[in-house]
Design a protein that fits this description.
By secondary structure, the protein is of the alpha+beta class. The protein is globular. A 7-stranded mixed β-sheet has the order 1-2-3-4-5-7-6, sandwiched between helices. Helix content is about 40%, strand content about 25%.
């Protein structure tokens, strides 16, 4: 099977939101929703963010794997870690407006980042269930690594310490664990290639 990887468009926003929710998992999604909102509300927020051109979850930072007939197989969001603080502001503005959070720009600025300025960050990787085990994830990772080469920075990512399958995948394509760090209440492996 041939895997075609190309730039996402605004029309891919729902798929991008699916990828984000799968990447963060049901626990963090539930935490975001709280008692007053639904998973669908959280999906709608990420879908709106994916349609914009100024967010970490933008279609501009996303590559889509497709079959030869154009059927989506998976998605990968990646960007220069030096841009994280600027790119994540729209998420917090949406969370303030839609979810009722009350974070100031100064508080957002002070939050620790999931990446660092000296790496290219692989933020989100998702393969649709019917295409798993067919090399799609490895193709998307290779594409992100190629994208990172332009920056001259290593590719970094966070992998949940409870996700041994993802850890083995990342190891198999050359990522090494360089440290552990907390993110959204979970300990994560910080890996680089």
């Amino acid at each position: 099977m041939k895997i075609i990887i190309d730039n996402a468009t605004r029309e891919d926003a729902s798929l991008i939101a699916d990828a984000i929710l799968e990447a963060v998992g049901p626990e963090i999604t539930g935490h975001l929703a709280g008692d007053s909102h639904t998973v669908e509300d959280i999906h709608a927020i990420f879908q709106r963010l994916a349609q914009r051109n100024d967010t970490q979850y933008s279609y501009l930072n996303t590559r889509i794997a497709r079959t030869e007939d154009g059927t989506p197989m998976g998605a990968c969001i990646s960007y220069d870690g030096a841009d994280l603080k600027r790119l994540r502001r729209p998420f917090f503005h949406e969370a303030n407006e839609i979810l009722g959070w009350d974070m100031t720009d100064d508080e957002v600025e002070a939050l620790p980042g999931e990446t660092q300025p000296d790496e290219f960050y692989l933020d989100t990787l998702m393969v649709l269930p019917q295409f798993r085990g067919q090399g799609v994830a490895k193709a998307l990772i290779a594409d992100a690594i190629h994208k990172a080469q332009v920056t001259g920075k290593p590719v970094g990512l966070l992998c949940d310490m409870d996700n041994s399958r993802a850890y083995r995948l990342y190891e198999s394509v050359g990522f090494k664990n360089i440290r552990t760090r907390p993110f959204a209440g979970h300990m994560m492996y910080h890996m680089q290639a």
